[in-house]
Specification:
Distance between the termini: 26 Å
Structural class: alpha/beta
Largest sheet: 5 strands, parallel
Strand order of the largest sheet: 3-4-2-1-7
Strand content: 5-15%
Radius of gyration: 17 Å
Helix content: 40-55%
Number of helices: 7
Shape: globular
Order of helices and strands: EHEHHHHEHEEEHE
Amino acid sequence: MKIMKFGGTSVGSPERIKAVAAMVAEKTEHPVFVVLSAMSGTTNSLIEISNYLYKKNTDGANEVINNLEKKYKQHVEELYSTDKYKNLTLDFLRNEFNYLRSFTKDLFTSFEEKNIIAQGEIISTNMMTNYLLERGVKVVLLSALDFMRTDKNAEPDLHYLKEKLSVVMKENQGYSVYITQGFICRNAYGEVDNLQRGGSDFTASLIGAALPADEIQIWTDIDGMHNND
């Protein structure tokens, strides 16, 4: 099995999602495990929402939520060609953004913040899965929260990961493409957490080691060469 990880810029627009989907669909002679980041800019918006909520500025938080929802609705119109998958994805997004709005009504702590920030990857993986389904690809979405966990030292729990991922893969045999979220996980107490910035690369590497995979590909979209990473 091959692992393919795509960062936020790689899935940063409907055009980029289509390009990634085309690459993934080309390689289905063998199973492919795809790890996705949130669409570029989304995590920053989710952090902005959290910052407003820490300051008890619900109007500011709702404004960012509304703008982000409007942006995603436009993405849906550009991405899908059938009413079935447009409506399916719009229903999903409606629930997602209502979930984000629910945090404006209660006490806000770092626990709620991590739940908010996790939604970026949850949205991008659902949108990609629906697009591949619309194209007729045999694809399944696996929640990283079901198998990715850190221990009490905030380090990846490799034994847990290998054990849980093995069960998940056995329950989902026969697919050409497996999709999951990068970055997000649960901690040792079962709470939603994350692997910090750059965590999607870490997710892909951990999954590759746990399966084990034949190859791990880290795809990115940057201009020119950088002198460090």
